[in-house]
Write a structure and sequence with these properties.
By secondary structure, the protein is α+β, with helices and mostly antiparallel strands. Helices cover 34% and strands 20% of the residues. It has a 16-stranded mixed sheet that branches. A two-stranded parallel sheet has the order 7-14. The longest helix is centred in the middle third of the chain and has 21 residues, at 315-335. The radius of gyration is 22 Å and the shape is globular. It catalyses: a 1,2-diacyl-sn-glycero-3-phosphocholine + H2O = a 1,2-diacyl-sn-glycero-3-phosphate + choline + H(+). This is Phosphatidylserine/phosphatidylglycerophosphate/cardiolipin synthase.
């Protein structure tokens, strides 16, 4: 793609409506779920308490999963399909809609799940399951959103489907971490999502209803009379905080390209002063890798710590994403003349690799982003995505509180991977003079639960062609990095 010199100018704030985000709205309460066990349990309670409407907008959906297997009781009543059926049968005013990406059904069929069009015939009235076919060729609806009564919204990286449930302990084996049909253990899984209430939830409700109308042709009115519906068992991470909603929406069906998520990534990398912490399923976006490389060459650029899975999941993803990662890591490591870049994957106590599906970005003590978008090209311009961010900008009267929250979440995530309390991460960073990279190196261990370095494989000639041509994951957005970087330099000098 050519450079587009009319790209955004970086402001004092990173979260700018119309550029790096769609809207900024206040959340009465905001919470973060690390790994799916607590998320699924909270989701179950929220669905059963819903008054008027529940909308699931997902890449994948499996009604056979158990939502809260740690609780005692009949297993069948804990299955997602039964929970949804109980919710509508128990409340004659409630409607539930499930909108799934159409090609995601191929994944479901491979798992032995009947097509949603057949499942829909077996569900009670007011429970609708349907697929969304409105996307470009090769594109995916990748958002992971659940909206309850337009007053509560879950959004992030966790699909309501099989192979996601796990706890932060990430045991080598867990009796509840099994596939619905085969009961096969499918390995430890790390993921992150978020929850908001208030105007921020209403805004995500607008997005979900827009997706529902686009996918089904049926418009839904907003829910305006629901009571405050925050789950009583969920402790808010922050209250009365501004939440930015950033999107990717491909050019399709008369709608123009929206790539707010990519612009936020570029602005965040450009603005970073000390640290960039990334959790992502992939490291396969050349533009962002080049932006990181540019910052690593600077004498006073930031440290960059990336947590990835050891390898991608599935043959095609391995060919598309692992080959791109190997190529881009060579580019980044060549630029890392000051030794400020590391990439790791987490392992269990028995050194079993933990699959990283989270999509998290933490920049300094300033920005926290949690969403559905991967660090690859398709998430920036081909798939539909939704990310939520909070910022602690200079001059904000709550700057210290928000900054402490941003770094505490980063330390919680690293503490989980390194098998130490978050306070131990914070203390080690302080002992290392603020160096996150040095702290990780001092805390990680060669045995037991920890982080291990990612070692890219040697690429075959075919792999090099795939990586060089980006045949399986092409760029689809205008390149605005140079303009963002120039603007960021001017801002950092102020």
């Amino acid at each position: 793609m050519q450079d587009e010199e009319s790209g955004p100018v970086l402001a004092e704030e990173l979260l700018v409506p119309g550029e790096t985000c769609w809207r900024v709205e206040r959340a009465d309460r905001y919470a973060v779920f690390v790994d799916a066990a607590d998320y699924f349990a909270a989701l179950k309670g929220a669905v059963l308490r819903a008054e008027r409407r529940v909308l699931f907008i997902g890449w994948d959906f499996d009604p056979r999963i158990r939502l809260d297997p740690r609780r005692t009781g009949r297993r069948s009543r804990d299955r997602l399909d039964q929970v949804l059926a109980d919710a509508v049968r128990g409340n004659p005013e409630l409607e539930i809609g499930v909108l799934q990406w159409d090609l995601g059904m191929f994944v479901a069929l491979a798992r032995g799940l009947a097509p949603i069009v057949l499942l829909n015939r077996r569900t009670p009235d007011r429970l609708t399951m349907t697929v969304d076919t409105h996307h470009p060729v090769g594109g995916a609806h990748h958002q992971k959103i659940v909206v309850i009564d337009d007053c509560l919204a879950f959004a992030g990286g966790i699909d309501v489907t099989a192979d996601r449930w796990d706890t932060p302990e990430h045991r080598d084996r867990h009796r509840h971490r099994r596939r619905p049909r085969t009961h096969q253990d499918r390995g430890p899984w790390h993921d992150v999502t978020s929850l908001v209430s208030g105007p921020a939830a209403q805004a995500i409700g607008d997005l979900a209803r827009e997706r529902w109308e686009s996918g089904t042709g049926r418009a839904l009115e907003p829910v305006t009379d629901a009571q405050l519906c925050w789950p009583p068992e969920v402790e808010p991470f922050l209250t009365d905080v501004d939440i930015a909603i950033s999107r990717t929406r491909p050019e399709h069906g008369g709608k123009s390209l929206v790539h707010e998520i990519e612009l936020l990534w570029l602005a965040a990398v450009a603005a970073a002063r000390r640290t960039v912490y990334i959790e992502s399923q992939y490291f396969a976006n050349r533009r962002i890798a080049e932006a990181i490389a540019d910052r690593l060459r600077e004498d006073d650029g930031p440290e960059v710590v990336v947590v990835n899975p050891q390898s991608a999941w599935g043959w095609l993803e391995t060919k598309a994403m692992d080959t791109a990662r190997a190529k881009l890591l060579a580019l980044v490591q060549d630029a890392d003349v000051h030794g400020r870049f590391r990439i790791y994957f987490p392992v269990t106590a028995g050194r079993r690799p933990i699959y990283v599906h989270a999509k998290v970005l933490v920049v300094d003590d300033r920005l926290l982003r949690i969403g559905s978008a991967n660090l690859n090209n398709r998430s920036m311009g081909l798939d539909t995505e939704c990310d939520l961010s909070i910022e602690a900008p200079a001059g904000d009267p709550r700057r210290e509180e928000l900054a402490a929250a941003v770094t505490s979440l980063r330390d919680r995530l690293l503490g989980e991977h390194l098998d130490v309390p978050p306070e131990a991460v914070a203390a080690e960073v302080a002992r290392c003079g603020g160096s996150l990279l040095q702290a990780v190196e001092r805390l990680r261990r060669p045995q037991g639960r920890s982080l291990a370095p990612v070692v890219p494989p040697e690429l075959s000639p075919l792999d090099r062609v795939l990586a060089d041509t980006e045949l399986l994951d092409a760029e689809r957005t205008p390149n605005r990095w140079r303009r963002v970087r120039r603007s960021a330099r001017a801002t950092r000098r102020r």
